[in-house]
Amino acid sequence: MTTAGIFRIGIDLGGTKTEGVLLDPTDLVLMRERRATPLAEGYQAILESVAQLVRDLAARVPAEASYSVGVGIPGSVDAVTGLVRNANSVCLIGRPFQIDLERLLGRRVGVRNDADCFTLAECRKGAGVGRQVVFGVIMGTGCGGGICIDGVVREGPHRISGEWGHVSIDPAGAPCYCGNRGCIETKISGSGVEAAFLARNGVSLTMEEIVVAARRGEARALLAFDTFLDNFGRSLGGLISVLDPDAVVLGGGLSNIEELYHAGVERVRHYAFHNDLRTPILKNELGDSAGVFGAAWIGM
């Protein structure tokens, strides 16, 4: 399929929501819709939900036009087996998601990691435009990353480029679904911070409630929030020391926490291997679900 003059369908499959977009050949948004992800109902329900959203978007494509389909998932498709790996929506792990979706739709579908899709979108139309090397971060239910070099998002031979969320920074830390302990994802994702707060205090609060309480000066929340910012600085400072990107772009629901862009940046400066850190740490420009556009642009 040639890429000129086609419509594009993008799907961003998240743990709580699935979002779809239909772009015309000039990248104008014709339709955008969010639906709840039926995570509790399991793999088949998720597969059919994604397929139905694609069909509903495709129904808006003119009959004489062609279109592509791309899907961002919270994991990756193994290049050898075709099975999903490293998904924090664990019901996808070991499943031939791309093959099954192509069978349901009767057409080819591009599938990439959701952080790769986010990074591509921000480098093509958002905060990363014009920068040579960009590290894109998704901080939400999980924690992912993507690396864009000269406008191309790198996958790597194992399709794990940018997966900083599963670097262990605390061997004595909480267990992660990946099998390690103290992964970055357990430290700075919303679910990780919530789990740590519950374990320490015996009280369940959402990430949003923790942030609000910390801003009010409540002691338990202040400690949790300060720990979150310090882990953010340690994680991103180490990443910058390795990659030395031209910019870092934050996405996902937690990217809306304003403290990340001042107090969080100060922690990054503390941990990075340079005494005059100049790496801009930027908020996304396409919204916290920018990955849906990247999914559309990687479609097949």
How would you describe the overall organization of this protein?
There is one protein chain. It contains nine helices and twelve strands. The protein has a five-stranded mixed β-sheet with strand order 3-2-1-4-7, sandwiched between helices. Helix 8 links the parallel strand 11 and strand 12. Helix 3 packs across helix 9 and helix 7 packs across helix 8. The longest helix is centred in the C-terminal third of the chain and has 25 residues. The N and C termini lie close together (8 Å).
Mean pLDDT score, rounded?
Answer: 95
How many DSSP helices?
Answer: 9
Largest sheet: 5 strands, mixed
Strands of the biggest beta sheet: in what spatial order? 3-2-1-4-7
Total beta-strand segments: 12
* Fraction of residues in β-strands: 15-25%
C-alpha geometry: globular
C-alpha-based Rg, rounded: 19 Å
Class from helix and strand fractions: alpha/beta
Percent of residues in helices comes to 25-40%
Topology as a string of helices (H) and strands (E): EEEHEEEHEHEEEHHHHEHEH
Q: Low-confidence segments, ≥5 residues, pLDDT <50?
A: none
